[in-house]
Write a structure and sequence with these properties.
By secondary structure, the chain is α/β, with parallel strands linked by helices. It has 2 domains: about 130 residues, Aspartate Aminotransferase, domain 1 (Alpha-Beta Complex), CATH 3.90.1150; about 240 residues, Aspartate Aminotransferase, domain 2. The chain has 13 helices and 12 strands. Strands 2-8-7-6-5-3-4 form a 7-stranded mixed sheet, sandwiched between helices. Strands 9-10-12 form a 3-stranded antiparallel sheet. Strands 1-11 form a two-stranded parallel sheet. Helix 6 links the parallel strand 5 and strand 6. The longest helix is centred in the last third of the chain and has 22 residues. The protein is globular. The chain binds pyridoxal-5'-phosphate. The site of pyridoxal-5'-phosphate (PLP) has 13 residues, from helix 3.
């Protein structure tokens, strides 16, 4: 049976051109970038070229980019690193109610340590209101975090407006850009970001490799202590092959971005218009226009999302509810509750995310099979 992948927001296959340029750094050019000998210098050069390329892609300086293991590390580093460096200033952090677990969990941990966390509500479309950011800021605020786009419902947040507010107040602004880097234009100055996280496997690069942007002069304590790799900001032997892969993946995305955005938007809009035409009792979640080109998210009345995913999987179609359910607990997603979706609908969620290798035939297949499946599960 041919399988169809509709879960690009969870992870994307690596582009073969990425793996190709990575390979030498695991075999012939395997040196430790910290070693002063020829093998080391070769790996070091590759790392620094990759850093330059990534920095250029997001409008940053090379010394503002550190390579790490991914966005979970980047978000943890930002939360713990800023809170530790601002101990004397205050203990108030503002985050949106729809942040990824990798940002929400460290914030929750800090709350247990006595930090005050303000969770910004979102509209029915999943939008944060910049005015509410402005109103939430106090003299004690040490960090604001709002994601560039939500991984579940695909809403693109008004991050640039929020960044202008935090900039005026001199408060560090963290932007989780995992769903946007490589997919839509990302520029740290336009977003007003002081910290920005990305992850290579979300844009056709290798898993376990990411980058953290830290604006010059931002005071942040290192998260991993040990050697002085990455200028002391991230100890551990540097992953030259991984950095080269991340940079290559991003270059490929940027080289063809407007075309990929157009293709994916066209397929996405087919899903968003055709599914409600063919199936009754369905709502679209997320914003209609301020939306990732590759995200379509639905909630079906009187259908269990888990059962729907299983039916799809049996037919070789791999999609998602948008978030991993807490094992067996069947709790609806906190993102869907945050947008005010009634419990019953939140249980019938379906996220369809497309990517570089999604074809018209894939979309047609889903459009053809989904109505029977929903009908079957309701009947
Ligand atoms: C996937 C994802 C992460 C985590 O990235 P990893 O590199 O897999 O740890 C963080 N934030 C968002 C929005 C994501 O989609």
């Amino acid at each position: 049976m041919q399988r169809i992948y509709f879960d690009y927001a969870s992870t994307a296959p690596a582009d073969p051109r990425v793996i190709e340029v990575m390979q030498p750094y695991f075999y012939t050019q395997f040196g430790n970038p910290a070693s002063p000998h020829a093998f080391g210098r070769e790996a070091q050069k590759a790392m620094e070229d990759a850093r330059q390329s990534v920095a250029r892609s997001i409008g940053a300086q090379p010394e503002e980019v550190i390579f790490n293991s991914g966005a979970t590390e980047g978000n943890n580093h930002a939360l713990f690193g800023i809170s530790r460096s601002c101990k004397d200033k205050g203990r108030h952090i503002i985050i949106s109610a729809i942040e990824h677990h990798s940002l929400e969990a460290p914030a929750g941990y800090l709350a247990k340590e006595g930090y005050k966390i303000t969770y910004l509500p979102v509209s029915r479309e999943g939008l944060v209101d910049p005015q509410q950011v402005q109103d939430a800021i106090t003299n004690e605020t040490i960090l604001v975090a709002v994601m560039h786009a939500n991984n579940e419902i695909g809403t693109i947040e008004p991050v640039g407006q929020i960044g202008r507010i935090t900039r005026a107040k001199g408060i560090p602004f963290l932007v989780d850009a995992v769903q946007t880097v490589g997919h839509i234009p990302v520029n740290v100055d336009e977003l007003g970001a002081d910290l920005l996280t990305m992850s290579a496997h979300k844009f056709y690069g290798p898993k376990g490799v990411g980058a953290l942007y830290i604006r010059r002069k931002t005071k942040i304590v290192s998260f991993l202590l040990g050697g002085d790799q990455e200028k002391g900001r991230r100890a551990s032997t540097q992953n030259a092959g991984g950095a080269v892969g991340l940079a290559k993946a991003l270059e490929l995305c940027l080289g063809n971005m407007s075309q990929e955005m157009a293709t994916q938007t066209r397929l996405r809009d087919q899903l968003l218009t055709e599914i409600p035409k063919r199936i009754t009792g369905v709502v679209i979640n997320g914003h209609r226009t301020s939306r990732l080109p590759n995200n379509a998210h639905f909630a079906f009345e009187k259908v269990s999302g888990e059962s729907l995913l299983m039916s799809l999987d049996l037919a070789g179609i791999c999609a998602s509810m948008g978030s991993a359910c807490k094992a067996g607990a069947m709790e609806p997603s906190r993102i869907l509750l945050a947008i005010g979706l009634p419990d019953e609908l939140a249980h019938g969620a379906l996220r369809v995310t497309i990517g570089r290798w999604t074809t018209q035939a894939h979309v047609d297949c889903l459009l053809e099979r989904l109505p029977q499946m929903v009908k079957g599960l309701r009947g």
